[in-house]
Amino acid sequence: MQLTPSSPRPSGSTPGTEADRDAQRDAHRRAAPDRGRTLLGPALSLIHTGQTPTRSALTRALDVTRATAGAVTAELEALGLITVDSRPAGGGRGRPSHRLAIDPEGPVVIAGQIHADGLSVTLAGLGGLLEPPVHRPLPAATDPVRMLRAVAEAGAELARNSNRRCLGAALALPNPVTEPDGTALAALHFAWPSGTPVADLYDVEVGRADNGPRALDPLPTAIANDANLGALAEYRHGAGRGARHLLLVTSGHRGVGGALVIDGRLHTGSAGLALEVGHLTVDPQGRPCQCGNRGCLNSETDPDALFAAAGLTPDPDRPLLDQARELCRAAATDERARAAVEHVIDRLGLGLAGVANILNPDRVVLSGLHLDLLEAAPERLRAVVAERCLWGRSGRVPIVGAELAHGALAGAAELAWRPYLADPQSVVAVG
Questions:
Q1: Nearest CA to 23 among 90, 69, 76, 72?
Q2: What is the pTM of this model?
Q3: Beta bridge partners of 111
Q4: Cα(first)–Cα(last) distance of the chain, in Å?
Q5: pLDDT mean for each 10 residues of the chain (431 residues)
């Protein structure tokens, strides 16, 4: 990449425009030809997260000359990762700033998720853009090899049928996953043996699947806990944007998960097992939890708990989470549903307050069933947290709903994209 200093502003140009101010800033910056390639990753990450929609914004964010920013974006465009539109981005006078966007025909990754009721897979481009997910039932045998094979084959089918290059595959799991070895601990939903090497098994199954001629071979794989991945996705593309200390708490099809993002990085603890908030006790006399204790957030605020509080039995032939969401919506007109929602919200508020007292987040994001509970009675939940949390009493714990419809899948995509965001030139490994 050839980088050259920007040219001075012609004497006849109009002073005071944004382009002129950029030119003046350029005069105080040192053009650095050797920096161009090292800036590719930071530049792509900024465009990927929507922080720099124009080349002028990218110039300021990277604190480089316009010529350097132009060379960086030209390289990313040549790699097939972004588009650069020279049409004016606004109505101001002076030199227009080029618009930057993710290339809609660029490469994709496979994002998968295993949850208690089934499997979900999709293809995901940069920018947090997911294709419509495909949902499949769990295989008849739920041992780890068969389940990982099923999700690998489902993702491979999508890759084979796509005209876009496929660069990787990542999977979200509903149980703790250790780092860096990638073993599953306490896989309570499927009774997998503790210490199952899920990362290695998934890598083998993805390698065996026919991912099509446009997929990298071998296809890089990664695996992580679904709550961690959901938090990462919300931080980059959803309700967590702009937060410094983001706490996500979620209840999917069964159980409760939590995750913490600090200054853009997931806090996963010494071995990837941090923030197991689902096993925080909120009622010592409460419902039994799969972990062996009673009254865990896990067993007091998930879909099963909501139906138990309402004295109802869910339809075994329909997804449990969908039915629980319907029950939340019914709280507006049905007294029994309203009482059940309030009961579960009170337990959730106790858990959120306890975690907030320890972590002092500047934002709490709720997803899954917890988002529906928040929407059903937002003032009640916030009041419980405010009453029980030292920081909540001063109104300093904003509680918001997740914005992403498929947070765990979006987070799996982030995981698969990670090596390419660090080194965009590595995409050339695919023909």
A1: 69
A2: 0.86
A3: 122, 170
A4: 21
A5: 35 44 46 64 97 96 95 96 81 71 97 92 97 94 93 98 97 90 79 90 97 95 94 96 94 87 88 82 91 91 95 91 94 95 96 91 94 94 89 75 95 97 87 45
